[in-house]
Amino acid sequence: MHNQDPQNQTSQQQMSVVTLGVADLTRSKRFYVDGFGWRPVFENEEIVFYQMNGFVFGTWLKDRLAADSRREAGGSAGFSLGHNVATEQAVDTILARLASHGGRLLRAADAPPHGGRRGYVADPDGHAWEIAWNPAFPISPEGYVTFGL
Amino acid sequence: MHNQDPQNQTSQQQMSVVTLGVADLTRSKRFYVDGFGWRPVFENEEIVFYQMNGFVFGTWLKDRLAADSRREAGGSAGFSLGHNVATEQAVDTILARLASHGGRLLRAADAPPHGGRRGYVADPDGHAWEIAWNPAFPISPEGYVTFGL
């Protein structure tokens, strides 16, 4: 399926940090702290970090992120972040909460072809979140999510 | 620091899926499978999934992602993904491996103000990855990453 690595220089299958550019930290926190109900593990005047399920989530002033990465926004082929919930009903509840805390509904919840239920909402900086109920993906009490069919 | 939630409708502090739009799955796999050395847990003609440290990483044909999320690429304030490595030397090794497997170096490795070492590389679809050695962030043998100062 792929080339073997003769020198065994592969790297751990692990993503450490997801960092989103934001224009205004207070506006962003309204969505993540008041909307999702998440708690920062660290914050200062330019960045807010959240400890997630096995990695760190950062919201960083977009100009700082662009300068650090030598990368302006808009150069990628698009992305979305997923937040899976435990019940079908919670999809609509969370979408509505996020939309009332600075989010913008992109797609109202409905059933995707693979089953379950999902909708999309953009955070105040235009980052797309899919809120999904997907019974095929187990979620541990600690929030660790496993692929399933 | 934030409003209390009187109805206790907060949602688990958890990200289930990170999905990147890609133009060509074979080209993308050269970067992730041959460059990083990661192994898909599932793939078909439109998507490749990787089981990560507590969540699922997907690379999906960008037109499908845009249609599903009702969201064209380029509408967000920028983002980067981080991959932390165990040693200072590994930063340069992995950056070079990724650059030779379809990646484009955005920033050569150097020392950030907070210490450690990092550089940035874009995947074949323009998604920015920071490859970092950051001794303050513990990484478990299973790849779970914890925020540290």
TrEMBL record, chains A, B:
Domain of life: Bacteria
Domain spans labelled VOC: 14-134
Entry-linked InterPro entries: Glyas_Bleomycin-R_OHBP_Dase, Glyas_Fos-R_dOase_dom, VOC_core
Alphabetical list of Pfam families matching this protein: Glyoxalase
Gene3D superfamilies, per the entry: 2,3-Dihydroxybiphenyl 1,2-Dioxygenase, domain 1
Cross-referenced PANTHER family: BLR2520 PROTEIN
Protein name: VOC family protein
Organism: Chelatococcus sambhunathii
Top-level taxonomy: Bacteria, Pseudomonadati, Pseudomonadota, Alphaproteobacteria, Hyphomicrobiales
